[in-house]
Specification:
The complex is a heterodimer of chains A (about 500) and B (about 110). Chain A has 21 helices and two strands. Chain A has a two-stranded antiparallel ribbon. The radius of gyration of chain A is 22 Å and the shape is globular. Chain B has one domain. Chain B is about 65% helix and about 0% strand. Chain B contains three helices and no strands. Chain B is elongated and about 65 Å long. Chain B starts with a helix and ends in a 14-residue tail after the last helix. Chains A and B meet through helix 6 and helix 7 of A and helix 2 and helix 3 of B.
């Protein structure tokens, strides 16, 4: 029993509700939301420290004993994800202060930002399958609002598709829950895991596993269900695109890793090989999409897809080293991807466009921006000693150990193509004849760079401090591969 | 009873699939609404029907109904109600902005 776990879920929810009352006081809204986001980050670190020292922490809501009541569970994986999403939450919020237009700010931008964080944290911390659905919905409804926020013609059209696809996936989530409840008679994930272990018919479980993979794969943009992502992430402003790119698909991946290490572990030969196959497709087709694009934001969106593939690859290989690599990769991705989106937002603020062919030569006027972008970009591509390298290294090492050479080949190829499209951005945007005119040369850079700097620093730290961070990832992976600990911590047997 | 319900749910699912694949924006929304009804019925059906007494009203009966699926469906209905209202407004705004409700004219093209 540790009531601290409620803070990352309840605090943004309450504050978001209060912020609605300050509709016309933008400064007040900014101050309150910034303070909340920073306090949440502090609490996230404290929770992780508690979990690391004292083991898995749980809260029984309304003191209903599990499996009858809803529990919030923080193990290492969940609390790590809460830290990462709090970091992104703070950074994107400060970037939004600089770049969000006043018209958007007027219409409840900050309250929905807070609701989104509440939903994301809830999805990470919950230990109940139906509660996971509810927090998914909290997060998605906030994301529906934020993605259409501003209401341009393009946003309306693409948001409609985004909403329909996500509602469709949510309905199938209910169908999956109905099947699980019909078979096991419980919704507490720990108890489901326990009862699934006693079940003899694995055929029906495989069918349910595939249904859940479909649902979470649609939210997490796995092959072949990623088609909605690039167009819909192109619409909203960069601060929101960065938040979505960092968090939303990762919630889907988190749910896949959680269910496929806790519940659906009965037949890895079928389920995890299927995930491996999907991971290969996701990586390969995502990066091909990126190579074909000539727009800053669209290239980054397609790269989200290809990198989701790496995370699924770690789960598909299903060994301690590979899952540790996937967790390291998630940490790396949640830090680097928003940074790149924010760089995109900064160049958009300077040049007024995201089309690569319409900008060039920014390096002369804004050298700091250019070199920092280069550091982040090669980190994404996986050049040592930055963070992208070590995670991919672990995945590939384990792939070779298990003799799965084809998937290793694909992931190396995808690495090269990632480097290619990152260099394409760098060459088009920062090299060449300078195209900036008058006003564009004198944009104050510091306010734009300040929120990005911590992220760039973190990717360097993650790279140079790979040793302790990787051993932490190994701990997380070890915990995920021993579901008995999770079950005991929740059900207290 | 279960069998009848399953057949009914199958019909609802197929009708909603048909609606979602049509060209009209409003029908897509209707398809989503139908699909969510089907999913709620499925949740009710799969938890099993029996002739138990209502729970929480006395302790004399030997068999009770499971109250949980109804609570779950209530939550799911509220959520899908909210989302449907949002979808209708979004669909209307899209229709006004683009002056069409045909999905094939809302595809968008690469160069914009």
């Amino acid at each position: 029993m540790n009531n601290l776990l409620l803070v990352p879920v309840v605090a943004p929810f309450l504050i978001g509700t209060i912020l609605i009352l300050f509709k016309n006081h933008h400064r007040t809204q900014r101050v309150i939301s910034a303070v909340t986001a920073i306090i949440m980050l502090v609490f996230a670190f404290y929770i992780t420290y508690e979990v690391y020292v004292n083991g898995i922490q749980t809260v029984e809501l309304g003191t209903w004993v599990p499996p009858f009541g809803i529990v919030l569970v923080a193990d290492l994986f969940a609390s790590l994800m809460v830290i990462l999403s709090s970091i992104v939450g703070v950074v994107c919020l400060f970037f939004a202060f600089q770049t969000i237009s006043p018209e958007r700010e007027k219409f409840f931008f900050y309250p929905f930002y807070m609701f989104l964080l509440a939903g994301v944290h809830g999805a990470f911390l919950t230990g109940d399958l139906f509660n996971l659905f509810v927090f998914f919905e909290v997060m998605l409804i906030a994301s529906y609002i934020l993605i259409v926020h501003g209401g341009t013609k393009y946003q309306l059209r693409e948001s409609f598709k985004y909403v329909v696809i996500n509602v469709f996936a949510s309905i199938f989530f209910i169908v999956g829950i109905a099947y699980i409840y019909g078979i096991t008679g419980t919704l507490n994930m720990a108890q489901i895991a326990e009862r699934v272990g006693e079940l003899e018919q694995t055929g029906v479980l495989n069918a349910i596993a595939v249904l859940f993979l479909l649902v979470f794969g649609m939210k997490g943009a796995l092959f072949p269900l990623y088609f909605w992502l690039p167009n819909s992430y192109f619409g909203p402003p960069s601060a929101i695109a960065a938040l979505f790119g960092g968090l939303l698909t990762k919630v889907g991946i988190y749910a896949i890793i959680r269910t496929f290490t806790l519940i659906f572990t009965h037949d890895p030969g079928f389920t995890h090989n299927l995930i491996l196959f999907l991971a290969g497709g996701t990586m390969f087709f995502g990066v091909l999409g990126a190579v074909a694009q000539f727009d800053f934001k669209r290239i980054l969106s397609y790269h989200i897809i290809s990198q989701v593939g790496y995370m699924a690859l770690g789960l598909g290989l299903y060994s301690q080293l590979a899952i540790a690599g996937a967790i390291y990769y998630i940490a790396h991705h949640i830090i680097v991807k928003p940074a790149l989106f924010l760089f995109c937002g900064a160049t958009e603020k300077i040049t007024g466009t995201t089309d690569l062919k319409k900008m060039s030569g920014l390096l002369k006027t804004y050298p700091v921006l250019g070199w920092l972008f280069l550091v982040t970009a090669i980190s994404l591509a996986g050049i040592p000693p930055l963070s992208g390298f070590f995670s991919k290294f672990a995945l590939i090492l384990d792939g070779i150990d298990q003799g799965r050479y084809f998937i290793v080949f694909i992931s190396l190829l995808v690495g090269i193509l990632t480097l290619f499209s990152m260099m394409k951005i760098f060459i088009y945007v920062f090299w060449g004849e300078e195209s900036l005119k008058g006003e564009q040369r004198r944009q104050p850079l510091m306010p734009l760079l300040m929120p990005i700097l911590p992220l760039v620093a973190l990717t360097v730290i993650l790279g140079f401090g790979a040793e302790p961070i990787f051993s932490f990832s190994m701990d997380v992976a070890n915990e995920l591969l021993e579901p008995a600990n999770y079950i005991n911590a929740v059900l207290k047997e | 009873m279960e069998l009848l319900m399953i057949i009914l749910i199958g019909i609802i699912f197929s009708v909603s699939t048909y609606l979602m694949l049509t060209n009209s924006l409003l029908r897509v929304i209707f398809g989503i609404v139908m699909l969510s009804h089907g999913a709620h019925l499925l949740l009710l059906t799969l938890s099993g029907f029996n002739d138990g007494a209502p729970p929480l009203l006395g302790e004399e009966a030997s068999v009770y109904m499971d109250p949980l699926p109804q609570a779950l469906i209530l939550t799911a209905i509220v959520i899908s109600f909210g989302v449907t209202a949002f979808l209708l407004v979004l669909g209307y705004r899209t229709y006004r902005a683009h002056e069409t409700d045909k999905m094939d004219q809302l595809r968008g093209n690469a160069d914009e």
